């Protein structure tokens, strides 16, 4: 398989350059109790609007009833590979506070928390893949989430497995070179 390290136009932290989203997880790998604590500690310290910390997580491990509920809610190709991950995490935004006041930046803040979590995971030798393809209402019902909590994404976490276990179309995507838009296309104004 080709190198997964990003070819950057400027130096970045190794944990960022080496981070990628595999679909091939080692189904024999499990996470002992406490193994994810550092990831969620990193998420806890992400910045948020007015320090509201509107992120919540549903953390499940392969083999649990909760894991099976999330796996069943996955859609498309995600159902073909995500069940091999050691953990599935639903990333939830608290879109309004307990008094009903909307939190306009809740999903943005949740994204920052998950980004912190992903960099910490990479630095600890874990891999993860974030997914938007899942039935949000099925997850809401399975975990009896109040309306103020919005499931936004699911993250598969675990150890890297062989890409040979994937179906052919997914195997090709797994081995394809990493591509990003040039930095010059992303910065709209640079005065």
Question: What does this 3D model show about the protein?
Answer:
The chain is an alpha+beta fold and 191 residues long. The chain has a domain at 37-161: NADH Oxidase, CATH 3.40.109.10. Helices cover 32% and strands 16% of the residues. It contains 8 helices and 4 strands. The chain has a 4-stranded antiparallel beta sheet, with helices on both faces. Helix 2 (37-44) runs antiparallel to helix 5. The chain is globular, with a radius of gyration of 17 Å. The model has no long low-confidence stretch (mean pLDDT 93).
Which fold name corresponds to the CATH topology of one domain?
NADH Oxidase
Runs with pLDDT <50, length 5+? none
SSE string: HHEHHEHEHEHH
Mean pLDDT: 93
According to CATH, the homologous superfamily of one domain is NADH Oxidase
In whole angstroms, the N-to-C terminal distance is: 41 Å
Strand percentage lies at 15-25%
InterPro entries: Nitroreductase, Nitroreductase-like
Keywords: Oxidoreductase
Family: Belongs to the nitroreductase family.
Protein name: Nitroreductase family protein
